[in-house]
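Subgroup meeting minutes
Present: P.N., E.W., G.H.
Scribe: E.W.

1. P.N. recapped why we're keeping a running log of single-chain structure predictions: easier to compare across weeks, and new members can see raw inputs and outputs side by side.
2. G.H. added today's entry (263 aa).
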Amino acid sequence: MNLSASIVTYNDQAEAIRAAVSVLEHTRRHPLALYLVDNASTDGTGKALEAAVASGKLAPGPRQTVRVIRKETNVGFGAGHNTVLPELASDYHFILNPDILLREDTLSDLAEWMQAHPAAVMARPSLCFPDGRVQVLPLRRCSLRPMVYRQLSFLSFLKKYNDAYVMAGEDLTRPRQIEFCTGSFAAVRTSAFKAAGGFDEGYFMYVEDADLTQKMLQRGQVWLVPQYTAVHVWHRAAHRSLGPMVQQTRSLCRYFKKWGFKF
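Output recorded in log:
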């Protein structure tokens, strides 16, 4: 089978190079096309990625290709990933954050698992912090109360809704169907991803992964496949400053208008 992956970057050259190196080093069982899309970085990330390819720091291995695409403007997360959509000729495509690191051939593992489960159109592995702690991420459909709690955790009376959102207390050690696949690391069946039209580019940042999950669920099943793992540094900008929080709120409004409000 053929694999492809895209990493969208903005002012994060060192991190993006580390992520790309880990993808190239560990993805060996199947042909891979890796796309590095720079969203008009102001710190020279685009040029640094091109230089890393030219110097051999990002040298593709056997049956691998690497392409750097430099955008003239910052088009946002989803639109950045959509840049490669017309070029994809793979069986399975991987949407990766620049703060993802592989320690094993997780791309091949997930692709082979999805091939063995034809109804699966989207999946993610277990994600952990660099110290090995497993990350608690949304697994159920996006709704208001857990989103409020995740921004304002002192509102302890909302914790039970967040627990349901992340399926706390349920067995997450075995593969199971989910309603929310994080955009930090998502595997998609390329044909279904194309049929869905990729990401909704009306989202500049945040919640576009929840939106994509809903579109993919119209075409098949979405799975958590926890026996496969990857490291996710997880900067959580929306939890640290006002600007990203405002952007996330706008994206939530778009999501609820499109998919229906869930309290």
